[in-house]
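Record 1 of the preview.
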Amino acid sequence: MQPTVVEACLKAGTVKLLAVSSAKRSSAALEIPTVAEAIKDPNFDLTLWQGFFAPAGTPKPVVDRLNAEINKILAEPEVRQRLIDAGANVVPLSLEGFATFVKNESEKYERIIKLTGVKSE
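->
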């Protein structure tokens, strides 16, 4: 597996990781604490995530098939392990589970935006 840019910088000593922003330590660097641990706030969680989306109006059978096939691929041991080795937390979800996750994430960031007063430019 090719090392990531971050891994290369870590090995070269040009970067030092202080903490990860996810709620749990990264499987790729278990020795690095989380921000939640560092600031003693168990609610801190700014996890980067990825998901697959289809255009609005995509027929439900097509979306169901895509979801099933993607989850099947994510369950393949080699694929799963490569993602874990890269620091990913692999969580295959149902359509409903993913919709709930996206809704909760959107609400979380909306609260952060309101609290910080960040404005779009």
